[in-house]
Amino acid sequence: MFRLFLAALALALASPSWAVQPDEILDDPVLESRARDISAGLRCLVCRNESIDESNAELARDMRLLVRERLVEGDSNTEVMSFIVERYGEYVLLRPTTDGANIILWVAAPVLFLISILSAGLYLRRRENAPEPSKGGLSAEEEKRLKELLDD
């Protein structure tokens, strides 16, 4: 029984903790659900890799309140996201857009990976076909010079 309690406790502690305060929650469950969906895709600018829904930072709270305020005013999800991005910049998106200059970021990693695989293949093929270094000994001049150096 105690092990079951410990397992349940571990699962409860491993789950994400939501930072949304009770005074932030909207009365309309549909609007609240939309607010949660939007805030799950927005980055906390203080915590960096947390959504504003998970962050306890004051700025994240302000952003959550702003999202809810815009939804109450009647904005669509797209309009709310556009407003937040316009105000805080595109960095606020946890999943950046794939248009404009961002396409370079999305394409660069796979392209560089392919280039590195091709380069490694070419290197290995050239190395395989390269002539073996000569196994012959030193020439007479080289032996004479080596003997002089060792005698000194």
From TrEMBL:
PANTHER family named in the record: CYTOCHROME C-TYPE BIOGENESIS PROTEIN CCMH (PTHR47870), CYTOCHROME C-TYPE BIOGENESIS PROTEIN CYCH (PTHR47870:SF4)
Cross-referenced Gene3D superfamilies: Cytochrome C biogenesis protein
Assigned keywords, A-Z: Heme, Iron, Membrane, Metal-binding, Signal, Transmembrane, Transmembrane helix
Species of origin: Roseinatronobacter thiooxidans
Protein name: Cytochrome c-type biogenesis protein
One Gene Ontology CC term in the entry: plasma membrane
Signal peptide bounds: 1-19
Keyword Transmembrane helix: yes
Transmembrane region(s): 103-124
Domain CcmH/CycL/Ccl2/NrfF N-terminal: residue ranges: 8-150
Physiological role: Possible subunit of a heme lyase.
InterPro entries: C-type_cytochrome_biogenesis (IPR051263), CcmH/CycL/Ccl2/NrfF_N (IPR005616), CcmH/CycL/NrfF/Ccl2_sf (IPR038297)
Molecular function in Gene Ontology: metal ion binding
Recorded family membership: Belongs to the CcmH/CycL/Ccl2/NrfF family.
Highest rank taxon of the organism: Bacteria
Start and end residues of each stretch annotated as Disordered: 129-152
Ranges of compositional bias, category Basic and acidic residues: 141-152
